[in-house]
Amino acid sequence: MSDQFVTIHFSKRLNAFLKNSRKGKRFRFFFHGGPTLGDLVESLGVPHTEVGRVRVNQKKATLKRHLKSGDAIDIDPNQAIPGRTPKFILDVHLGKLARYLRIFGFDTLYKNDWTDRQIVELAVKLNRFVLTRDVGILKHKRIRKGYWVRQTDPEKQIRELMERLSLYGKTNPFRICLACNGRLRRVPKEKVADRLPLKTRQYFDRFYRCKGCHKIYWPGSHYERMKAFVEANSRSS
Q1: Mean pLDDT score across all residues of the chain
Q2: What CATH architecture applies to the domain 5-77?
């Protein structure tokens, strides 16, 4: 075993990536050669996108710093704020979350047959913030902005994101197509009447059409349920 080692401590929010024996503790990590802090962090299961402030021997450092034996390292979580007007891309495990994000008005790319490679390429090309349940995607060196979604239930996931990504005050609900992420525009009833169910034509007068896939929306009973959900989750507690 190498006699070169560092001691390292991760903040509580990063415990989800660590083995139980390392959670909440300062522990030793033995190493060979000259790995960087980034190499160390990801070898322990923590994606670089989840890392915020890094301190070595109580001094600010970056993940590019090479380890030196005896270093005392402290890692804090990234606040992961995706910007004033967030634009997301989601992995194949987050289809229901994609729908919720679109309901809240967030530009969200999602397809259930994208490979990890395709997601990485699109995220880099289009400067999108990656949301994933697959830690491996976030370890890709080309990904700079991303977040590993902890919750598994979609309703809990949207609440998690509103809190962790500081999305309160950035919502603009019912402006994006749930099917294709296209923009919705108000359309006169007479222009879509021939595509409406009979009772819809009788009882509703306000309609919206997607500029992309041309799907038609109107404020029926489903809208009221979604509106209540959005209102309940668009403000911090």
Answers
A1: 93
A2: Roll (3.10)
